[in-house]
Amino acid sequence: MSLEEIRSKLIDLYLCVKVRKSDEIKNITSEYIQNERNSLKKIPLIDIINYIQNSIEILVEMRAIEKYEEKLEKDEEKNNYINKEDPNDANGLKLYEGMLINAEKRIRNHIRVSIYKYNKYIYI
User: Fold this and answer.
1) What is the rounded distance in angstroms from the CA atom of residue 83 to the CA atom of residue 63?
2) What's the number of domains the chain is made of?
3) Which of 8-12, 51-55, 67-71 has the lowest mean pLDDT?
4) Pick from 123, 118, 116: which is nearest to 54 by CA?
5) Of 10, 22, 67, 113, which residue has the fewest beta carbons closer than 10 angstroms?
6) Predicted confidence band at 86 (pLDDT cuts at 50, 70, 90)?
7) 110 vs 45, 60, 70, CA distance in Å?
């Protein structure tokens, strides 16, 4: 497998796992994907790998938060939920807060990488 084939496969993988806004998803066309693919061809492979890694980390964090929120809803239905107003229930709140902080870090890093992709330098 040549380097260009590897690059092409990594670009395809990134485009599959890239975190997008819901309105952006609705407007995706094959032309939009092709333009994005062409712009990614100009980027070093290591950066594309970092994009993939960041996108997957964001998706994992989002899923973890989603599962935690589902657990809270189930516990609430059983009248045994974590009450965020209760200062005695700091463990659940700290866990949730930590998950949100990690997700925010991943999203900020993803934004940084996306901005770098378009050769703009912004520090968040």
Assistant:
1) 22
2) 1
3) 67-71
4) 116
5) 22
6) low
7) 16, 13, 25
